Amino acid sequence: MKLILAVLVLVLVVETQAQWYRYPEQAIGGAQDMRRAYQDMKEANHKHADKYFHARGNYDAARRGPGGRWAANDAREAMQILTRRGHSDSEADQEANRWGRNGGDPNRYRPEKLPKKY
Fold it and tell me: Which GO biological process annotations does it have (predicted)?
């Protein structure tokens, strides 16, 4: 009985520390970050800026936590389906996606003449 109680307490402590209850909030915020980056990319309509916006959206989403990282990955796949972009286009943006999702500075991909607004 003591062993069961000890395991139960351990599970509760670990689950509380994992903050699993924040996952949905992080995922929703991450999806909003990705949508904002996509809208900014369309609004800017700047040549060679897509990698910057990919990296920025992933970076912002991932900073929210595990739910945001999940949303960034899931949003990317959804956008590929919606925009019907091919696999080769996807491969070209993967590096920027990974860079941003792993905490890299999105400005690495920022074009020189992109307005400071973005």
Answer: acute-phase response
Q: What is the mean pLDDT of the chain?
A: 84
CATH code at 48? 1.10.132.110
Q: Which domain holds residue 42?
A: 1-109
Which ranges of the chain would DSSP assign to H, the alpha helix?
A: 2-18, 23-44, 50-62, 66-83, 87-101
Question: What are the C-alpha distances in Å from 57 to residues 7, 27, 107, 115?
Answer: 40, 13, 12, 17
107 three-class SS: helix
% pLDDT > 70, the chain: 75
**Of residues 117, 110, 104, the one with CA closest to residue 50:** 110
Give the total number of structural domains in the chain: 1
Read off the tokens for 43.
């609004």
pLDDT of residue 87: 58
Regarding pTM above 0.85, the answer is: no
Kindly report, residue by residue over 57-68, the tens digit of the pLDDT.
999 999 999 999
